[in-house]
């Protein structure tokens, strides 16, 4: 097998975003595009000579072919071994687990998460460091620098290897170890939770519907919920991963998980509903006719985590991304837990988890996780919920109502304005940024602005600083409006407006969320001049 060195030139725009490099699949399929980026990952981390990597993805279109290219490149770059999921499949949390468990030098995950897949949709490549977490900014910066300096890449001239058969196989001197993508992950889950209690719950007739959205969690959920926990047949829907996710967005929210939404709002709704995204790191939790907002889910998990064996001795602290509602902060305060506010992006939790400052983290974008891996983890969140329900004997609706009675309710919603011209979106942000210091004391839609700033974060562990992480406007009564531009889109700009209002009056707890937030929504439009800058009066998505 010949080791080829291919001359190449830098390709513009290979800058990793919130979660690796995400582009249209066709962009990735252009000559040298994938190869340039993969070589830049290798160069950016000081080469892979003698190293061991993990490789896998969410099964989306082009993932299998990309995996073969990456294997040939790893071999040509002198890697010792690549542990790859059978069929090039690994959920993001399962990849994180393998990176850690096998003490590897990191891993490459092929996914664009919840973005749709297919020849005309999205693809992505992400590097995770040896702690199992997404590469922090200094690493992604080095990778980006490498993409700008690249002059050649190395690749082995070889046929595809068989990724369908388990076991080790040699590729030009490098060992490729094809592993069952589910086994290690399922074992990890079993070590964290009281599977006996959850098994007894199902035995007692508790009904669950898990929507895998034709994405990677199908086989994981089937093995864990069905085979290990005995949930009834048919409890996992859309369980077969498809390269185009059946044409949908594998994004677990009330808009895209419509099949689950219907089931949970029907007359014969199961007791518990859940869904996960393309690569298995996001989660959505529902009770009969009730959607649990991710921010509320984090707060409930923080309040009840000790019910699960892994957290019986406490969780030390909790961290949330800045735009996530402050419901978890209320729990942290009452329970004497440390509480951290980080920029959007799971990578910012890594140091806090590594340092033992927090054991539980969450984001409004449907991500919840803990210190068992360094990614958010969809099925883990489902299992922790189930463990809590099994231990308390209460249902989802009752649990939420109890929670609000104890801690108050932070009404919360995110409004997305998608496909805005980048210049217009930036003009809106610049305009508001310029007015922030004038806002305190002013009125908007009948509410008073108490404070306003632009979020920047200093990591308490390594002192690194992230600036310009979102504009925050605090209003009276514990309300807040946050604005930022999405870092994960592939076309134009998405303006995210995060809306929060707080109530301690139980008479209000059942108010419909958009209605409860109507005053804050009006205030947000007025403060940010959304229509003036974008021409929009209504969002595309209310999450
Ligand atoms: C990904 C990241 C999350 C982040 C989310 C939203 O899922 O892993 O950490 O919260 O994207 O990012 P965005 O920049 O689109 O709001
Ligand atoms: Zn994801």
UniProtKB/TrEMBL annotation:
Single GO BP term: carbohydrate metabolic process
Reactions it catalyzes: alpha-D-glucose 1-phosphate = alpha-D-glucose 6-phosphate
Entry keywords, A to Z: Isomerase, Magnesium, Metal-binding, Phosphoprotein
Alphabetized InterPro entries for the sequence: A-D-PHexomutase_a/b/a-I, A-D-PHexomutase_a/b/a-I/II/III, A-D-PHexomutase_a/b/a-II, A-D-PHexomutase_a/b/a-III, A-D-PHexomutase_C_sf, A-D-PHexomutase_CS, Alpha-D-phosphohexomutase_SF, PGM
Lineage top rank: taxon: Bacteria
Signal peptide interval: none
Pfam families: PGM1_C_vert_fung, PGM_PMM_I, PGM_PMM_II, PGM_PMM_III
Segments forming domain Alpha-D-phosphohexomutase alpha/beta/alpha: 14-153, 184-286, 295-407
Gene Ontology molecular function, alphabetical: magnesium ion binding; phosphoglucomutase activity
PANTHER family: PHOSPHOGLUCOMUTASE, PHOSPHOHEXOMUTASE FAMILY MEMBER
Family: Belongs to the phosphohexose mutase family.
Protein name: phosphoglucomutase (alpha-D-glucose-1,6-bisphosphate-dependent)
Organism: Palleronia marisminoris
Gene that encodes it: pgm
